[in-house]
Design goal:
single chain; alpha+beta; eight-stranded mixed sheet; five-stranded antiparallel sheet; 10 helices; about 35% helix; about 25% strand; elongated; binds zinc ion
Length: about 450
């Protein structure tokens, strides 16, 4: 190459496509003051699930400024922003959640929340105790960095800002299943869906991801045991639903301990409610059991739910009682069940490589299974498209992350160093997926 051509090429590169030379970390550093300011503003103005009006307006305004095609009002307050890059290529969806929790903040910050809201008929404190303020701010940062690379990247991206991840208020629909129902993917069918979450159980600087079942399925069930009421002194005159229900609770323990292949995956059957009776000397006519089944594998999920029904039915029969079962069929009621948050193995390998590129191999770990559930996998399942969900450490360095106040605690504290880590991680994943950086 002649010197003059080289000089011209350098000039062109500098003037028109400076961001091509910029790493994900450099882009993130440049945007960090803005991302931090967004996060603090959102933190000070948290909104409960399905009430994210201010947040949603803010997100839509910023996305429009960045040149995204914006859709609002999906699942009440949900927002999407899409953009087409310079060359044809794959379609990527990136999801952030926007809602806060009915928790009164107990962290002394200059931007501490003193917000109040209405939840289940009560006035409650409202706090971003799960870090969705950070998710929204970081994801907007990624949107900004990608918009600057519009001509260099291939394919298309859709940012999904989702309401009500924590669950809609009683009696309302919301969250990922309502976004699906409202046609979030009507005009955009992604080839992959990526999400991230900040986590107290990891120190800041650390990023974590796991192939396969990463977060549990969650199925809420109810078993109503019908007996026959009698005097407590003469139980032989009735059928005792309390003894029957107790036997169901105990027998159901064998689902996990005797029936499921625990070598493959752990599982949980928990009874959280056991209600029955009015008075010490009356055998009541019914007892109600509510609980949850958690698994990391869809086949195991199906097996656990089927076993629960069989045990409840047959134990009741053994006692001469009957049961009404409200045990969900997987997928039948997306508003009360979540599937396994399954990280597609092939996509996870690609995402992990990007996380390593952005943060260094020492800072990327294999995530432990997390028995909590998320509605995030409902997005990928609806397309269907593979999805990956990774975790960003939130607890300050030097503090024991195992004992730090957890997400949902009034003392949940996000070290703002996590904002850079989360933004550069998601940005690198997106750049690599959308064909940037020469990969
Ligand atoms: Zn949460
Ligand atoms: Zn959360």
């Amino acid at each position: 190459m002649r010197p003059v051509t080289l000089a011209a090429a350098v000039l062109v590169a500098l003037s028109s496509a400076a961001s091509a030379e910029e790493t994900a970390q450099q882009s993130t550093q440049a945007l960090l003051p803005e991302i931090t300011a967004w996060r603090r503003d959102l933190h000070e103005h948290p909104e409960l699930s399905n009430r994210e009006l201010r947040t949603s307006k803010f997100v839509a305004t910023e996305l429009k400024k960045l040149g995204y095609t914006v859709r609002t009002g999906i699942a009440k307050t949900g927002v999407t922003g899409t953009i087409k890059f310079g060359k044809p290529g794959p379609k990527l969806a990136i999801r952030a959640d926007m809602d806060a929790l009915p928790v009164t903040e107990d962290v002394d910050l200059p931007f501490k929340s003193i917000a109040k809201g209405e939840y289940a008929g009560k006035t409650v404190g409202v706090m971003h105790a799960c870090g969705h303020d950070a998710h929204t701010a970081m994801t907007l940062g990624v949107a900004e960095a990608l918009a600057k690379r519009k001509n260099e990247l291939s394919g298309e991206v859709m940012f999904i800002f989702q309401p009500a991840e924590e669950g809609a208020p009683p009696g309302e629909e919301g969250g990922a299943p309502l976004m699906v129902k409202d046609g979030v993917f009507r005009d955009f069918k992604p080839d992959a869906v990526i999400g991230m979450h900040v986590l107290s159980m990891l120190n800041v600087g650390q990023v974590s991801v796991r192939e396969g079942g990463a977060m549990a399925s969650s199925d809420t069930f109810r078993i109503v045991v019908h007996g026959r009421q009698s005097h407590g002194a003469m139980p032989w005159k009735g059928v005792d639903p309390i003894v029957t229900a107790a036997d169901i609770v105990m027998s159901a323990q064998t689902i996990v301990s005797r029936e499921l292949d625990l070598n493959a995956n752990p599982a949980v059957v928990t009874f959280g409610v056991f209600n029955g009776g009015e008075r010490f000397n009356i055998v009541p006519d019914k007892a109600v059991l509510d609980g949850t089944v958690r698994t990391f594998d869809e086949t195991m999920r199906q097996q656990a739910l089927t076993s629960l029904g069989r045990i409840a039915q047959n134990v009741a029969e053994a006692h001469g009682a009957t049961v009404d079962l409200e045990i969900p069929k997987p997928g039948a009621d997306p508003f009360h069940s979540n599937p396994v948050n399954y990280n597609d193995p092939a996509l996870t390998k690609r995402v992990r490589a990007s996380l390593v590129k952005a943060n260094g191999a020492d800072n990327v770990s294999e995530a432990e299974r997390w028995m909590a559930s998320e509605d995030f996998p409902q997005l990928g399942n609806a397309v269907p498209a593979p999805s990956v969900y990774f975790l960003i450490g939130a607890t300050p360095k030097g503090q024991d992350a195992k004992t730090a106040p957890s997400n949902h605690s009034p003392k949940f504290f996000l070290d703002e160093g996590a904002l850079a880590v989360g933004t550069q991680s998601m940005l690198q994943v997106a750049i690599d997926y959308l064909g940037g950086g020469g990969s």
